[in-house]
Hints:
This protein has 5 helices and no strands. By secondary structure, it is an all-alpha fold. The longest helix has 55 residues.
Amino acid sequence: xxxxxxxxxxxxxxxxxxxxxxxxxxxxHSSAYDIWSKFxxxxxxxxxxxxxxxxxxxxxxPTLSLWLSSCAAIATVMLTLLKPDEKASGHKVAASxxxxxxxxxxxxxxxxxxxxxxxxSALAERLDLLSEERSRLHRSSPTPLAEAYRKVQQxxxxxxxxxxxxxxx
Length: 169
């Protein structure tokens, strides 16, 4: 194997690694988005139910009303401190960014490597840009929940990684 072919193979392998990592990250963030979104809805509905129950029972059962309003207040504080809507939004943006990164890597590997194979320096430069983007995403993205990551690992271990873009979580 000549040096140029070795460089092309190394670039192709690194692009596949970026694609695979992007798929894991995208799916992990999508799963975390789902979890935080559900958490936000569940807490919001719970707060509403506690508040309505407290208001309806205020004159008949003051102790129960006090207990329900206290539960609503605690749930409101948790919702305010945890900010599940902001966390969900951050994970949704990260999932979209990782999907874009994976797409760029795949297009470079599948399309541009054919047209630019004579120019290994141009391919290496594009690979460097994708690696920098991946590093930036790692630094700026929220950390996916461990449960979301486990869910993705289990799902992707049951399928071919190259077909995972069609899989929804």
